Amino acid sequence: MMKAKLAAFTIPAALLVMAHVDVDSRHQTASETSMAFEAYLLPDPPGKTEAEASLIRETHPDFERIAGWISAVGAAVALFDYDGDGLSNDICHVDPRFDTVTILPAPNRSGRFAQKAVPIESGDAIAPMGCLPGYLDGDGQVDLIVTYWGRPPTLHTAATDYAPKPLLPATEIWHTNASITTDADGDGHLDLLFGNYFPGDFNVLGSGGDAHMQHSMSRARNAGRNRLFLGDGTGAFVDASDALDAAVPDGWTLALGAADLDGDGLPEIYIANDFGPDQLLHNRSTQGQPVFAAVEGRRRLTDSRSRVLGRDSFKGMGVDFMDIDSDGRLDIYVSNIAEKYALMESHLLFRQTAQEGAWTSGRAPFVEESSRYALARSAWSWDARFADFDNDGDLEFVQATGFVAGQVDRWPELHELAMGNDELLANPDVWPEIRLGDALSGDVQDVLYDQTGGAAYARVRLPVLAETSISRGIATGDIDGDGDVDMVIARQWQPSVLLVNTAAPVPSLTLDLRLPDGKDISRTRPAIGAIATLVGPDGQLHSEVLPGGEGHSGKDAPELHFGLGAATGPATVKLAWRDGTGHHRKTVTLEPGRHRLLLTDSSLPGAPSRSETIQ
């Protein structure tokens, strides 16, 4: 067994790091960094040992020769507040080595409660793929959604001690790799959105049906159907997937995101698809009537088609929202495959611009600028997160990387497949053999980038991220309440890891935004989708959206974090949120520290914004 605690790592002040900066082959030196993390491996699930761990899955017979490819997903993590202590210092961990879902305290804060195995649906053709926390039944306690390959999701409420309950009474086969909570129709209740990968006419991990792969490397539309379920706040859900069908062809979805991008309080939906174009859905819903319209960016004379939002041909595997240019508008980052001497596509950074009337005319007001920020290249990449880890007021960037590890490099054969006829791709027999021991981007490391002055980023080579790894999900949050951002990284076929931020203290602002959960105002839930905009002393606006599970398989803590750098004194924050009574805005002034804000309509008891400062 590996020791649970690895080591504490810092970067010497004299260490300067060189980083490749994108398509024009410029190079620059990263600034000296004070970022430092202490690493802890997540323990094995209760009753499990490394001797019982699997490294590959049993698959449909048609997939036996590519079982390594089929076995490449399933690791997932979520940060949430299981024990009600006011901090998101608890972890829901999906471990594909044992096909288990476990609730555990953050390893550096262990002893608060024993690991808890979440009871899940199991079977020869079923494997858990994700864990999504959410306040779903109005009792003020956090519930869970577990997603699978081989069956629809199950609902696990705190009131039933997380016993599984089918989300669907009908028998269906789903292969789900992305899930989020969001208030899709603006009625004040959390809804569920699922992204499915393989179609449901065969069982990937079983033997039923005729198995097939993507029918194109860049325009595949033969995948599973994405699904939307509207919640009523009591734990009951209605299938509203028909609202997506007209706008969402059956892409091979690996990541989802939801954020109010046009300022009306309703969340737009970003769908990151493997083997084909991503999609951005403009939300035109009313309460109880979800309506979405696909929108695309406008191609300029110098734009390649695949750098236009909604028209890419890449392998979308992660998505995150951030305000990259501090203009108060949310931007979008998408992970793809972008590795030298392998598959040099591009990650995508869509910066939002001010274009009057763009949304209603079907245009997405975004320009692709990953090269400008030197964030177009890293490796075969999954979840990506922007966060201010050193509290200097600028965002850092972390990305989970790698696909399958082994001794035999299969990239040359994959290149040959990629140059073949798309009509052959659906047949798994034409794919290169990928079994246990074969490799595709198995020798890379998770990456951390820091801004170096101006817009451009450069890689910071932290020793804590120096080992090669095969990672999938990233969950960020302040697990110890000390004012800086920590993270958990879910790793495939190897222990996942918690990285605790140990940098020197710098002032920050952490916001735990809440809404009443049901009719009892004493019961609250995170205000998923609320947007906070910090007004900097220089007048710059820094916006963040309260996350509901965005990305591939990592689920961030439901809180917002702003580093204040050298700023002193109180901070001005503009809040925007939607509940069942409409879209609301309020400006508050807050001292540095951690604050819990109850966002209430004027018709409810209490002030429009009630603040509890948490030391």
Structure notes:
By secondary structure, the protein is mostly beta strands. Strands 1-4-35-34-33 form a five-stranded antiparallel sheet, with no helix packed on it. It has a five-stranded mixed sheet with strand order 8-7-6-5-40, with no helix packed on it. Strands 36, 37, 41, 44 and 45 form a five-stranded mixed sheet that branches. The two termini are about 35 Å apart. The relative contact order is 0.15. The N terminus is likely disordered.
Topology:
Elements (H helix, E strand, L loop, with lengths): L4 E5 L8 E4 L4 E4 L7 E5 L25 H4 L5 E5 L9 E6 L4 E6 L10 E2 L9 E8 L8 E7 L4 E3 L7 E3 L9 E7 L8 E6 L30 E5 L5 E3 L2 H4 L6 E8 L8 E7 L4 E5 L8 E4 L22 E5 L8 E5 L2 E2 L3 E2 L3 E5 L13 E3 L12 E7 L8 E6 L4 E4 L1 H8 L18 E3 L7 E5 L5 E3 L11 E7 L8 E6 L5 E5 L6 E9 L7 E3 L4 E5 L5 E5 L8 E2 L4 E4 L7 E9 L2 E9 L2 E7 L9 E6 L1
Parallel strand pairs: 5-40, 29-30, 36-44
Antiparallel strand pairs: 1-4, 2-3, 4-35, 5-6, 6-7, 7-8, 9-10, 10-11, 11-12, 13-14, 14-15, 15-16, 17-18, 18-19, 19-20, 21-22, 22-25, 23-24, 25-26, 27-28, 28-31, 31-32, 33-34, 34-35, 36-37, 36-41, 38-39, 38-42, 42-43, 44-45
